[in-house]
Amino acid sequence: MGDSTKKVPIAGRRNILITSALPYVNNVPHLGNIIGCVLSADVFARYCRIRDYNIIYMCGTDEYGTATETKATEENCSPKEICDKYHAIHRDIYKWFDISFDHFGRTSTPEQTEVCQAIFHKLMENEWLTENTMQQPYCDTCQKFLADRLVEGTCPTPGCNYDSARGDQCEKCGKLLNPTELIDPKCKVCRNTPHIRDTDHLFLELPLLRERLENYITEMSVAGSWSQNAIQATNAWLKEGLKPRCITRDLKWGVPVPHEKYKEKVFYVWFDAPIGYISITACYTPDWEKWWKNPDNVELYQFMGKDNVPFHTVMFPSTLLGTGEKWTMMKTISVTEYLNYEAGKFSKSKGIGVFGNDAKGTNIPPEVWRYYLLTNRPEVSDTLFTWADLQAKLNSELLSNLGNFINRVLSFIAKPAGAGYDSIIPDAPNVESHQLTKTLAENVGKLVEQYIDAMEKVKLKQGLKTAMSISSEGNAYLQESQFWKLFKEDPAACAIVMKTSAGLVYLLACLLEPFMPSFTDEVLKQLNLSRETHLSFSDEKGDVDKAKKPWEFLPAGHKIGRPEPLFKELKDEEVEFFRQKFAGSQADRKLKEEADAKAVAEQLKKTKLADGNNKKEKNKSGGSSSKSKATEAEPTISKLDIRVGLITEAKKHPDADSLYVEDIDVGEGSTRTVVSGLVKYIPLEEMQNRRVCVLCNLKPVAMRGIKSHAMVLAASNEDHTKVELVEPPASAKIGERVTFPGFSGEPDGLLNAKSKVWEKIQAELHTDVQLVASYKDVPFTTSAGVCKVASIANGEIR
């Protein structure tokens, strides 16, 4: 892509530069990180695009500093390798979440060094930097000065007493610290107590910049409608009194300080990280200064979590003001509080909560995650993520409200002529005379105004709630109109209702695009409209005025696409499965996974029964009479309920590499869920639409969180290196019982596990030399013939 395609500010347009706090590169982001910065910024960026503003959205991974060095030591590789690994992880997770960066870069670039050092030189020239001797923890065991994050101890703040506070900031109370302030400090690497040593550093003289900074804050916090939590955090810093802030560190991994005395040091990550916004833009376009040194024509919006506020409202602005250059300064800051998880806090360091890659593995689509996180966005206070709440919002708001409205409208229009409109939007003259529609239009017009007002003020949660209210209005309108009756009784009125409702469907696709872009893509597809030509909500094009006349959105005669359900219900057992799966820390989960894998292996082993066990049982009675032998007769094959089944869908178990989860039709009207350990032996594509023999009366058993309600029968060779499915004839009827000539009787409801009925019978199941599946010498028989395997002769069936 050439530079001519890169966006630059345009005179006369609203030019908006959007940044998200740069996620730190040493770990996988969790849902709290995602809603706190990248997702919130993405919603605003997408909103600005449909409003036809000229915007760029810049973000990237923050890669320098102690945390990267520490992670590299843990993983026994270089900091560069750590950054490459986690940058790719972050990029892929955000891509899955549909985050629409104009550029997702990184801070470990030549551009970062260049911009950072240029700003440093300006600060030196303008005499805003001073030298000072610092006392810093030095670890004799590790033989180095310890960066702030490498020291942990008890927070000195009265009433906090958090015992895992870092040397730069307490995660619990949020107070910024120096490592020398910690009570009982320890080296994070070796857990020994460091001692204090002198080291020279450079400081940014914040007290000397105070007047300029306060003027900026006073003006911009009003002009940019800063959120209350941002103002409070900033004022707390100012009230405490600004102190010189160290901008250098005794590290190797970072931007080198271009000063003879300090050339062995690097810039402190919180000096250089916000400069990353600028250097990432420089990587996007050589015309970066048109965005960053253009305060009269560019508005800067920045998104972050509350712990980042002082660095964006005090440190970064002071740095830019100190250069004396005309920088684009932050106009609006949008800050989130914390999203907590079930009973505690999301934590990257402790591995608690749902992480980006976890969300991807749940098979819950990205638009549902985005919707839930945004309805739960912690704008003014901490909010709580719970699986039950996610289920409630999906099932009641997305499925029953939004999805139901759209599906009802489009399904009715798609019905063949005589029952509907044969997929053609009807003509609807004289709409103004239809009072119910006029009332709807007035209500929708007001809601659209409220939506725009909320979104312009970056009140994203309110914007989403307002858009969803339009769906509720639509559902009420459909009910009150009783369109299904009107179709026969008053066709003209019915046409008005359906054309208007189809317009509402389009309107919802536009208004909800910032929140759920993949949902919008699907709705536009069902409306047979292209995103490129139709997705717009700008004043200039009259889109906002049309919202007051929703029947005008889609022309009469337009043919819609094929309606399909937009959302899938989340069931109680799935919620319980996810709650169990994501309980505790990632380390706890790993131990649980290993234990579960062991249990599955044991379960599979138990299905094999040595003949000796049977003999032992028989021999216990020694020379017992024939009468007692008769009363303890061995169970026969007739007790088993083996049926012809059809695998309608097979997929990998979401939480076990060796297991498939199959939906199998066994003639009951609905399918049974079955878990099978066949991944190593049979490719997934060969499991689809396959006729199989299914044992249906085993007691259901949970295998890695999914309950298996039957067993697929398969044969294995002597050393269990090869496994093949027992297959009924292609013409065998689905659901018919597999029989064994000479053995009659009804099967047990459920096999008695204590009596080991299945294990005893299984010992007699095998394939013969002609590959026929048999019990003793009797073949598995269906109305269409016997059941066989592909190639395993004299194999064991289980």
Write the layout of secondary structure elements.
Layout: E1 15-20, H1 31-50, E2 54-61, H2 66-74, H3 79-96, E3 103-106, H4 110-125, E4 129-139, E5 144-145, E6 151-154, E7 165-166, E8 183-187, E9 195-204, H5 206-223, H6 228-240, E10 245-246, E11 248-249, E12 266-267, H7 269-272, H8 275-284, H9 289-292, E13 298-305, H10 309-323, E14 330-336, E15 339-341, E16 344-345, H11 356-361, H12 366-375, E17 383-385, H13 387-414, H14 435-456, H15 460-481, H16 483-489, H17 491-511, H18 517-527, H19 531-534, H20 543-546, H21 572-581, H22 586-606, H23 611-620, H24 626-631, E18 642-652, E19 660-665, E20 672-676, H25 684-687, E21 691-695, E22 701-703, E23 706-708, E24 711-712, E25 714-716, E26 723-725, H26 757-762, E27 765-767, E28 773-775, E29 778-779, E30 781-782, E31 785-786, E32 796-797
Parallel strand pairs: 1-2, 1-13, 2-3, 13-14, 15-17
Antiparallel strand pairs: 4-5, 4-9, 6-7, 6-8, 9-10, 11-12, 15-16, 18-19, 18-21, 19-20, 21-24, 22-23, 25-26, 25-32, 27-28, 28-29, 30-31
Keywords: Aminoacyl-tRNA synthetase, ATP-binding, Cytoplasm, Ligase, Nucleotide-binding, Protein biosynthesis, RNA-binding, tRNA-binding
Protein name: methionine--tRNA ligase
Subcellular location: Cytoplasm
What does this structure look like?
With 798 residues, this protein is an alpha+beta fold. It contains 26 helices and 32 strands. Mean pLDDT is 88; it is low at 604-632. It comes from Rhynchospora pubera. GO terms for molecular function: ATP binding; methionine-tRNA ligase activity; tRNA binding. Residues 636-739 form the TRNA-binding domain. Residues 604-620 have a biased composition (Basic and acidic residues).
